[in-house]
Design goal:
By secondary structure, the chain is mainly α. It is built from 3 helices and no strands.
Length: 85
């Protein structure tokens, strides 16, 4: 899957989950007050299921997955390391 395909899929999930709020690649979803800790769990489950990767505990730092850019980077890092479900 290409970078753009990953990004589009992440944006689609976030937009649908956040009631069609448009997000830029660097908008901080936590600062916008749109998400809570339960949603972050749902986000991790979405990532693992749709991109067939397993997110390490080290990557679960919420400070590092608050933007589309950061989420895409997390997915690409985990795909490159070959950690898959």
């Amino acid at each position: 899957m290409t970078h753009e395909e990953i990004k589009n899929k992440v944006i689609e999930f976030l937009t649908r989950s956040l009631r069609n709020k448009e997000l830029g690649e660097d908008d901080n979803i936590m600062d916008l007050g749109l998400v809570h800790s339960l949603f972050m769990v749902q986000l991790i489950m979405f990532i693992e299921k749709n991109f067939h990767v397993e997110i390490d505990d080290d990557d679960l730092d919420m400070e590092q997955i608050q933007t589309v850019r950061q989420i895409v980077s997390l997915i690409e890092r985990n795909q490159q390391t070959g950690v898959s479900l």
